Every structure is written in C-alpha cells, then in structure tokens.
Automatic annotation (TrEMBL):
GO terms for molecular function: UDP-N-acetylglucosamine 2-epimerase activity. Signal peptide: none annotated. It comes from marine metagenome. This is UDP-N-acetylglucosamine 2-epimerase (non-hydrolyzing). Keywords: Isomerase. It is an enzyme of class 5 (isomerase).
Length: 203
C-alpha cells in the first residue's frame, strides 16, 4: 500500500508506484489522504496517480491535530480492510508520519522513501524535521536518497541491512515528464551547448 497526500509526495512516489504496479508479484493500492488536494489533482493524469482510496481529510483552517486525526481514523479502516503487508510513505509530511504511525498501531511494516535526511535541528524546518525523524524510528525499511542519508541513519543506530541507497525518485519523475514533453527546442539546445564549462540551473 502506497500513501500520499501532498504534491511532493505525488511527484516522488509516482515512479515507485508505477514500478510496483507492473510487477506480477505485488498487489498495490494507492491511498490519497487529500492533504494537498488541489495541488495533486493536476498531476493525476500526467503521472498516472488515480487513487484506489481517498480519505478527503483536508478542511479549511484545520490544524496538525485535525490532519493527524483524519489520517489515523481513515487509514485504520483501510488497513483493517485490506491488511497490507507493508505501507510505503515518502518524505517529511504529516501524511508520511501519521500513516507510518497508523501502520505501527495496526502491526504493519513501513517503508520510508527519502529516509535519513537531516538538518540536525528538530524544529528546522517545523514540523517536517521531526516528522521525518519519527517516521524513520517507526519504519522497517529505509530507502535513502544519498550515502550521507544512509550514514545519518546508521549513526542513529539503524541496521545497515534495513537501509538501501536508491537515489532521489524525483529524477525518475523528471525523466518521465521530459519524455512526455518531447525534445527541447533547438534554440534552447543551442544556448545550453554554447559553453560546455558552464552550469545549468533548472527552476
């Protein structure tokens, strides 16, 4: 089971989800919490992210307490109904943390994509830094984007056998979108190739 709720989660989990869906060994469900509904809706077609379940937790003016309650209550029902072997979450969002907590309450294993990133200050950024730390504590498998992220996890006492350095999945999404958009315009390619020693920054 893959759980997402925000635009960054949607972008970064799309390649993982699509990889799981083409495997004959895995039966995958996508759960959308609705934390960033309007920001995710426009990605559904482009990234093939039609959810199997939608918690629709977002309410105007809601607090983190409301988000937490919505995730925990909604996911408890879905987890009890489908009994997944593992729940995959991504990053440092409220959806990631509360989904991992719901999985823990139900005795379900957790895999954390983009695990191990740290600022070393628990309130910077707030509340994301603490969300990702706590999600890592709960998780059984850690998919770290970099060697440094893996080292961070090892320093916190996590077993190396549970940590996999996978790179950043946003690159996979970028490549897919680039394929959809086609080749760059010739004028753009000409500008890029003028100075091979220069750096190109994409915004």
């Amino acid at each position: 089971m893959v759980v997402i709720g925000t635009r960054p989660e949607a972008i970064k989990m799309a390649p993982v989800l699509n990889g799981l869906r083409i495997s004959s060994r895995v039966d995958t469900r996508l759960v959308f919490t609705g934390q960033h509904r309007r920001l995710v809706n426009d990605l559904q077609t482009v990234l093939d992210l039609v959810p199997d379940d939608d918690l629709s937790i977002m309410r105007e003016g809601q607090s983190l307490y409301d988000v937490g309650e919505g995730c925990l209550r909604g996911l408890s029902v879905i987890i009890q109904e489908y009994k997944p072997d593992m729940i995959l979450v991504q990053g440092d969002t409220a959806t990631a943390f509360f989904s991992s907590l719901a999985a823990f309450f139900e005795g379900v294993s957790v895999g954390h994509v983009e695990s191990g990133l740290r600022t070393k200050k628990k309130s910077m950024p707030f509340p994301e830094e603490m969300f990702r730390r706590l999600t890592d504590v709960i998780s059984d498998l850690h998919f770290a984007p970099t060697i440094q992220a893996k080292e961070n996890l090892k320093k916190e006492g996590l077993d190396s056998d549970q940590i996999y350095v996978t790179g950043n999945t946003v690159v996979d999404s970028l490549l897919k979108i680039a394929d959809l958009e086609g080749q760059l315009d010739d004028d753009i390619l000409r500008v890029i190739s003028q100075d091979e020693g220069s750096r190109l920054v994409l915004l």
